[in-house]
Design a protein that fits this description.
By secondary structure, this protein is of the alpha/beta class. The strands form 2 sheets. The chain has a 5-stranded mixed sheet with strand order 3-2-1-9-10, covered by helices on one side. Strands 4-5-6-8-7 form a 5-stranded mixed sheet, with helices on one face. β1, α1 and β2 form a beta-alpha-beta unit. It starts with a strand and ends with a strand.
Length: about 150
């Protein structure tokens, strides 16, 4: 079993100690944008690799807009979501994932936690870590099967 923990939209909230104490079983972390500098701070603290992608609030940054990773036999698309209009519809996100042979797409930008299925693609938004409730998501992956969960601190 592999575990990927997701945060997004930290907006300067770098209070990662409680989050890291709850995610000790992680194999990898992902920061899905807004602010990439917070993702870099997480990278300094986390005991496992941290992937970062940039969001609409990450100007002057050379982080990628999207990444595709393989973990536990699954392909996962990581992006902030602003480039595919996730505040209006999840269709373009699902299409982009399918075009890249990804079973799952993880995104932020909406500040609203959610787990959805569109066109056979699993879509997961951890919500906004920078908000007072500090939401995040976990993907548990084994033999290509992904089980998503949402949490608040």
């Amino acid at each position: 079993m592999k575990r990927l923990y997701l945060v997004s939209d930290t907006h300067g909230n770098r209070c990662f100690d409680p989050f890291l104490s709850l995610t000790g079983d992680a194999d990898m972390y992902a920061h899905l944008g807004d602010y990439v500098s917070d993702g870099e701070a997480l990278r300094q603290l986390a005991p496992k690799p941290v992937i970062t992608v940039k969001g609409n609030g990450d100007f002057g940054n050379d982080a990628p807009v999207q990444e595709i990773i393989s973990l536990g036999g699954a392909r996962i698309l990581l992006l902030h979501g602003h480039t595919v209009g996730v505040k209006y519809s999840l269709d373009r996100l699902a299409y982009l994932a399918a075009e890249n042979d990804a079973q799952c797409a993880c995104y932020g930008h909406t500040h609203i936690s959610g787990i959805d299925w569109v066109g056979g693609v699993l879509l997961v938004c951890p919500g906004a870590f920078g908000r007072y409730e500090g939401s995040y998501a976990r993907l548990s992956i084994e033999n290509g099967v992904i089980v998503p969960d949402l949490f608040t601190l």
